[in-house]
Amino acid sequence: MTHVAPLGGTAVQDHVALAEIELCGELIIAASAAEDRLSLESIDEVLRVAEERKSAEV
């Protein structure tokens, strides 16, 4: 028996997964634009690590 998702607004959105997918996309874009491997500092910048640390301290 084949199960098909019902039509309508029953889709569940996982906001954490969507945010992770967005960050992965940004890393891919940054890596493809770079001439060499991304440094750890560059990766942190793309992932906005410093911004997250600042907001966690407040």
The total of beta strands comes to: 0
- Which structural class is indicated by helix and strand composition? mainly alpha
Assembly status: single chain
Q: Describe the sheet with the most strands.
A: none
**Percentage beta strand:** under 5%
Distance separating the two termini = 53 Å
| Helix-residue proportion | 55-70%
Radius of gyration: 18 Å
Mean pLDDT: 83
Tell me the overall shape.
Answer: flat
Succession of helices and strands: HHH
User: How many helical stretches?
Assistant: 3
Question: Uncertain segments of ≥5 residues (pLDDT<50)?
Answer: none
Structure description:
The chain has 58 residues and is mainly α. Helices cover 60% and strands 0% of the residues. The longest helix has 19 residues, at 15-33.
Provide a compact summary of the structure.
By secondary structure, this protein is mainly alpha-helical.
Set down the secondary structure blueprint.
Blueprint: H1 15-33, H2 40-46, H3 49-57
List keywords for this structure.
0% strand, 58 residues, single chain, mainly alpha, flat
